[in-house]
Specification:
HAD_sf; globular; about 15% strand; HAD-SF_hydro_IA; alpha/beta; about 230 residues; HAD-like_sf
Length: about 230
């Protein structure tokens, strides 16, 4: 899982959030996801079409995700059916599906939902809870001190910082006290965190130049909370 050039580099792993981090909120994927959720509420759960959008927002604000809220309300929703391979499809559209070693997602953090007899009896684990972050780090099997965690949500970044991760707040030009770095766009990573592109050689710093294909091969990254 080596990302940096040698053992002198401060990071050897990147841990990415997916939505609004690996892609900008302006590209339209997020709006498409919201429409899909509204459609799911109508088609699978029987809610009125004119109520779906409001319900989606209310469930997200109250329970952290629409799916978590639906299960609390007693709907036996299958997580795989609900998520519709969202992470894989996003990565394909971005053209980076081959750049990731592992995807850590809702199903990773909540592996026993299919065994629950009553949908509301099993608490769903989501970011930014510490339990969710600990599960992600255990599954990723990384050293938090040498892992760079990128997320667009301040609460998620705060949780990551509390567990010893080096943190990047994406979508902002000014970093918060919980973030070690701030990126307006993920494409600015090399400029804002230049140490991941440097190695010590013969007592000095030397810039590493890579082709696109070489960069793809070393960007061994992971996504949390897809």
């Amino acid at each position: 899982m080596d990302f940096c050039s040698n053992s002198d580099s401060p990071f050897n792993c990147l841990l990415f959030d997916l939505d609004d981090t690996l892609y900008s909120s302006k590209v339209g994927i997020g709006e498409g996801v919201k429409r899909n959720i509204d459609g799911f509420l109508v088609e699978k759960c029987g809610f009125a079409e004119n109520k779906a959008s409001t319900l989606r927002v209310e469930l997200f604000k109250t329970y952290g995700s629409t799916l978590a809220g639906l299960r609390v309300l007693g709907y036996d929703i299958d997580a795989d059916d609900y998520h519709r391979n969202h992470a894989i499809e996003c990565l394909k559209r971005l053209g980076i599906e081959d750049c990731f070693e592992q995807i850590i997602c809702f199903e990773t953090m909540n592996p026993n939902l299919s065994k629950v007899t009553r949908p509301d009896e099993f608490p769903i684990v989501l970011k930014p809870s510490m339990d969710a972050m600990k599960i992600a780090l255990d599954v990723a099997d990384v050293d938090p001190r040498r892992t760079l965690f990128l997320d667009d949500n301040v609460k998620n970044v705060t949780a990551g910082k509390a567990l010893g991760l080096r943190t990047v707040l994406v979508g902002k030009t000014m970093k918060s006290k919980e973030a070690d770095y701030a990126l307006e766009n993920i494409n600015n990573l090399a400029q804002v965190v230049p140490e991941i592109w440097f190695s010590k050689s013969d007592g000095g710093d030397e810039r590493i130049t890579r082709t696109r294909s070489e960069l793809d091969s070393i960007l061994t990254t992971m996504s949390v909370g897809a």
